[in-house]
């Protein structure tokens, strides 16, 4: 009897995470955890909603960009935007992370996604600080609706 109980306990322990994963939507950003071991870089942004959380995820995104972990940075910026949909800098961070870098040239799908994220940041500029508006304006020079128009710049 006790052997059966042990087998059932092991089976439940192994199956529980699978059951939870089944219920969560594919690509949900709310599962992104804050990693305290990434350093202390802090770049204050104009977040209005759960301020500490959105700010923390933005900072983590910046740390990850500087560590060349662009995919994880995007997830952190997406989580910041989920917590504060009016945070223009979260969308700026997504666009920045999708851009070309030393490890990867800019591919057409990434350009499209970066341009779309930047358009969200531009739409939210009235809610951003003057410094944040300048960051958004600077990045806007990198992306265009017509990616071929900036072909010589797209990988810079």
Task: Outline the structure in words.
This protein has 156 residues and is an all-alpha fold. The protein has a single domain, classed as Serine Threonine Protein Phosphatase 5, Tetratricopeptide repeat, CATH 1.25.40. The protein has helices at 2-23, 51-66, 70-83, 88-98, 108-123, 130-140. The protein is globular and about 70 Å long. The N and C termini lie far apart (67 Å). Mean pLDDT is 81; it is low at 7-28 and 152-156.
**Beta-strand share of residues:** under 5%
Number of strands: 0
Q: What's the CATH class label?
A: Mainly Alpha
Question: Major sheet: size, sense and barrel closure?
Answer: none
Give the termini distance in whole angstroms: 67 Å
Rg from C-alpha positions? Answer: 19 Å
Mean model confidence by pLDDT:
81
CATH architecture: Alpha Horseshoe
Instruction: List SSEs in N-to-C order.
Output: HHHHHH
Number of helices, counting only DSSP H or I runs of 4 residues or more: 6
- Poorly predicted tracts of residues: 7-28, 152-156
The percentage helix is 55-70%
Total tally of structural domains: 1
Structural class category: mainly alpha
Task: Let me know the CATH homologous superfamily.
Answer: Tetratricopeptide repeat domain
Named CATH topology: Serine Threonine Protein Phosphatase 5, Tetratricopeptide repeat
Using the alpha-carbon principal axes, give the shape. Answer: globular
């Amino acid at each position: 009897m006790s052997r059966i109980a042990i087998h059932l306990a092991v089976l439940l322990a192994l199956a529980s995470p699978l059951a939870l994963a089944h219920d969560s939507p594919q690509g949900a950003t709310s599962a992104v955890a804050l990693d305290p071991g990434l350093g202390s870089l802090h770049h204050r942004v104009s977040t209005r909603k759960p301020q500490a959380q959105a700010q923390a995820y933005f900072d983590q995104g910046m740390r990850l960009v500087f560590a060349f972990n662009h995919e994880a940075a995007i997830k952190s910026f997406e989580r910041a935007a989920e917590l504060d949909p009016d945070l223009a800098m979260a969308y700026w961070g997504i666009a920045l992370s999708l851009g070309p870098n030393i490890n990867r040239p800019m591919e057409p799908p990434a350009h499209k996604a970066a341009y779309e994220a930047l358009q969200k940041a531009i739409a939210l500029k009235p809610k951003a600080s003057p410094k944040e508006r300048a960051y958004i304006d600077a990045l806007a020079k990198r992306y265009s609706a017509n990616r071929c128009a900036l072909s010589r710049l797209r990988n810079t």
